[in-house]
Amino acid sequence: MVTSVELGDDAAVVTWPNGAVTPLPYLWLRDNCGCDQCRIAQTSEKQFHLTGVPVDLEPARVQLADDVLHVVWPDGHVTEFAGNDIRALVNPPMQKWRPWGADFQPLRADFDAFLAEDATARDVIEDFLETGAVMLVSAPESPNALEKLQLRLGRIREVVFDRIHNVVVDPTGYNAALTSLQLPPHNDLASLSWPPSAQALYMMVNGVDGGESIIVDGWRIASELRADRPELFRFLCDMPVPFRIFDDKEETFAVSPMITLDLAGEITIVRYSNQTMQPMDPTQPGVADFYRAYHEVSTRIMADSAKARFKLQSGDILLVAGHRVLHGREAFEPTGVRHLQDAYFEHDNIRNHLRVLMRRSVSDLAARRRDTSGV
Ligand SMILES: O=C(O)CCC(=O)C(=O)O
Ligand SMILES: [Fe+2]
Ligand SMILES: [Zn+2]
């Protein structure tokens, strides 16, 4: 959805919710007018010819209403462009990851709008792919809310413990989340060889003091370490580290380096969980080197400059990319009710849903062109 439009020297510049801008050159806008006068209705081919306007053409004015750009030209001709259609033409889609630190605040979008409106879902997913963290707000107070997200995020990934994890203070709880203690930034289920690549944390009810959420861009920390201290970075890529999470019925255990690279050398997984890391065999080669690297990466993760903070209110759902973004919380006073639910998803399914939305919007555009041409 376009959030604003401004007239520049030779282009109308539209801004998207994530702050990205797309310039639309005036001659391009005029040349691509889709109206019945500018296209041959029978074939939907272009009839307007660029020589019909001066090379320094500029709009008389531009307005934005309901995600449609209305461009009024000096001769009174009106060109309309839907934000979605512009988005479908911007190539390549904006998918590069954007690093962030303490001043980051995740994009906020309404829970119902995310489910009901393709344009909103598209903005949210694009932002999620770039930053690894977005917030859905005003979710209904219902144990079913996370299930509903499957429409946009793909199926919930069940793990052995539970399909939906209820995080409340529980004196018999099997992990640190079930206490009121502070939780350092971590990713969930580092104890699986493929930890969940997306996690939704849904604050169903929050009536306590404290317990602010903390998120850290693990990929940013790892890339900076790679640039500043390449030898330490290497130890984190090479040393296998054991992680374990268990309860009286279930057991999860995996041994994996803290940083995983793909074949092109790009960082794909940062695995960090102080509370579930297990002692490694101290006699294997490289343990002292690894520990120096682990100390450095931990210092960077725990630095105030790395931690984005906010308090989740009742109805907020924080969605994080599990292989990139670490989440944690401050300690809280367990005097009132604080009920959080977690569900896991897969990043691939979220990314692929964006492709579906783009396909859908391109075919909507084609259908609209067909409709207006009467074919
Ligand atoms: O209590 C919180 O805010 C987060 C707990 C946690 O780490 C989790 O639910 O995965
Ligand atoms: Fe967690
Ligand atoms: Zn026209």
Describe, in short, the structure shown.
By secondary structure, the chain is α+β, with helices and mostly antiparallel strands.
The end-to-end span amounts to 28 Å
What is the arithmetic mean of pLDDT? 93
Q: Got a strand count?
A: 20
The chain-level structural class is alpha+beta
Low-confidence segments, given as residue ranges, are none
Largest sheet: 6 strands, mixed
Question: Would you spell out the secondary-structure blueprint of this structure?
Answer:
Layout: E1 4-7, E2 11-15, E3 21-25, H1 26-31, E4 61-65, E5 68-72, E6 78-82, H2 83-89, E7 107-110, H3 111-116, H4 118-131, E8 133-137, H5 145-148, H6 150-153, E9 165-167, E10 183-186, E11 198-206, E12 213-217, H7 218-228, H8 230-238, E13 241-246, E14 251-256, E15 259-261, E16 267-270, H9 287-302, E17 307-310, E18 316-321, E19 325-329, E20 338-345, H10 347-373
The protein binds 2-oxoglutaric acid, fe (ii) ion and zinc ion (ZN).
2-oxoglutaric acid binds next to strand 19 and strand 20.
